[in-house]
Amino acid sequence: PFDVLVIGGGPSGASAAVYAARKGIRTGIVAERFGGQIMDTVGIENFISVKYTEGPKLAASLEEHVKEYDIDVMNLQRAKRLEKKDLIEVELESGAVLKSKAVILSTGARWRNVGVPGEAEFKNKGVAYCPHCDGPLFEGKDVAVIGGGNSGIEAAIDLAGIVKHVTVIEFAPELKADSVLQERLNSLPNVTVIKNAQTKEITGTDKVNGITYIDRATEEEHHVELQGVFVQIGLVPSTEWLGDTVERTRIGEIVVDKRGATSLPGVFAAGDCTDSAYKQIIISMGSGATAALGAFDYLIRN
Ligand code: FAD
Known about the structure:
302 residues; alpha/beta; 23% helix; oxidoreductase; NADH-dependent peroxiredoxin activity
């Protein structure tokens, strides 16, 4: 059996595996797609100490670092079930069952898509999901934020300080964000809020040049010219396969303590699949290190 088995090969999983292996314990890592979300990222400018890199390049560095150690890498394998017996068992889609004394869950998350024409075509060509990451790329330009919940309104406030103008598009007749956020938003001169509006299409040629929405009250169609669209309708953690084995929040994030421990002894979690307040590469790597050290502490006590 493994001492530590990491499920997920993004930044948090790679970090956890390296930290575990450096303790000289038997470490494995299972990943559906090694690299995780960064495989879909173009420019990365906030991975501190590296001024600029690109997602696939960072993923290759993660893999190279992992391969420096005696880590059993099982790529293109998806975990489908976890169960605690004497050891913790993880069953893969392939039918294989892996056993480990401790497990670190680092299965990450995915942004919820609006699913309108243009979204997929213009991803990284004006369609963005992370204001902390891509906001500065739109300096002086006009952008839209789709979604009027807390993350949408936080994004709009953040972007208003960087870009020329922000149009917020909310499907419901009212914004769902906390009232303090709405008040702050209303105090900004360069923000327009459009409620009761259904996004129909993100338009463009080689990159985004506008957004079309339908006013749900009048059924009239409108078009706004702009250069960027931030989709902020939720980040979905990839944790459905865990069921009730570990405690999860209402939106499915794994609840962890300050050592990365979940509600099930011996099972730890890190990165975007957890209830961490912010989701970023540098944060997920830090939490991967925390979970590995937490798992090591657990192993020497059990
Ligand atoms: P992920 O990167 O989501 O990795 C999850 C891993 O788990 C993957 O290997 C996946 O295949 C695997 N997995 C999932 N389910 C299973 C399963 N059942 N069995 C086995 N494996 C499984 N952050 C920044 O700091 N700077 C940026 O500039 C930046 N830009 C971004 C741009 C885009 C387009 C996106 C989508 C995200 C961006 N982020 C950025 C956020 C950053 O990518 C994430 O915070 C980070 O990747 C989280 O790492 P993670 O390891 O927790 O999860």
